[in-house]
Amino acid sequence: GYLDYLIIDLPPGTGDEILDILQLIPDVHIVIVTTPQEVALMDSRKTIKMSLIMNRDVIGIIENMSGYICPECGYKIDLFGKGGGEKAAKDFNVPLLGQIPLDPNIRVTGDSGLPFIIQYPDSPAAKALSESVKKIKEILEK
């Protein structure tokens, strides 16, 4: 049937999977999901460059694992560095769609088959994820 959206989770970098998608789906819109570490950003940058060379629409970057927020005191620890997604977004002139903090309950709900965002809607990660999805939808509906 008809799809409103098809989301494809691909491995990082510029391997066959991403190349096939870029060649087979001309009207693709790309959201880069990265983590703050420089090594992850290197792969993300390669994917963005290849997408732009092929004239594909990179609608933005999401920084996943963007720190850990203590549920007891609210203190944020940047376990994997800070600001990598924001810098890459500026470098490529694309929006930073969100920064999703680590939350152990993502794994717990994933293992149980329950949607994290429904089980923990008030958590910082769920709020950041919801905001990212909202931004993506707004961009796609323009």
TrEMBL record:
Q: Which residues form a coiled coil?
A: none
One of its GO biological process terms is: iron-sulfur cluster assembly
Question: By its UniProt entry, which InterPro entries does this protein fall under?
Answer: NUBPL-like, P-loop_NTPase, YlxH/NBP35
Protein's UniProt keywords contain Nucleotide-binding = yes
Q: Does the keyword Nucleotide-binding apply?
A: yes
Q: Which UniProt keywords apply?
A: ATP-binding, Nucleotide-binding
GO function terms (MF aspect) = 4 iron, 4 sulfur cluster binding; ATP binding
An example Pfam family from this entry, by short name, is ParA
Mind telling me which PANTHER family this protein's record contains?
IRON-SULFUR PROTEIN NUBPL
What name goes with this protein? ATP-binding protein
